[in-house]
Design the sequence.
């Protein structure tokens, strides 16, 4: 299974479990090589954010579920973390929430000849992420989104 397929499967299978515990799934990353994958999960919670105990709670929730489902055929390391200062932005509600903040967006395919946009997030409307880069407004289809992070 490719990294992208693994990430999509994780979102569909485990996001409801994480939400049920009162946390928001922010991002899922799969890295690693040599037969050991790193499954990195970013969670958040409002109000107050994430503490070390929250990461341990979600890790204890996910480890047995991942093992029972044979979710990852390779050896893996599960890392659960807060989103940090340069928070990943992925969901429409998050693009709306962080409108007005500095953001870097990377796309799969070029938009007007470029794949990386750093500027001010102007909103999310009808599946389009709107980023103002030095006075030029770019509209990026959500399906073309590779990665987006706040710049704080």
Sequence:
């Amino acid at each position: 299974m490719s990294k992208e397929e693994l990430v999509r499967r994780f979102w569909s299978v485990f996001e409801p479990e994480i939400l049920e515990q009162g946390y928001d799934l922010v991002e899922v990353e799969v890295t690693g090589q040599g037969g050991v994958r790193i499954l990195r999960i970013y969670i958040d919670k409002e109000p107050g954010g994430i503490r070390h105990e929250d990461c341990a709670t979600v890790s204890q929730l996910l480890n047995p579920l991942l093992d029972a489902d044979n979710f990852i055929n390779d050896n893996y390391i599960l890392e659960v973390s807060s989103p940090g200062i340069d928070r990943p932005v992925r969901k429409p509600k998050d693009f709306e929430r962080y409108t007005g903040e500095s953001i870097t967006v990377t796309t799969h395919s070029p938009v007007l000849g470029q794949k990386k946009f750093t500027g001010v997030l102007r909103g999310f409307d009808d599946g389009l992420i709107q980023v103002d880069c030095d006075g030029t407004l770019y509209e990026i289809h959500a399906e073309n989104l590779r990665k987006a992070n706040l710049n704080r």
The mean pLDDT is 92.
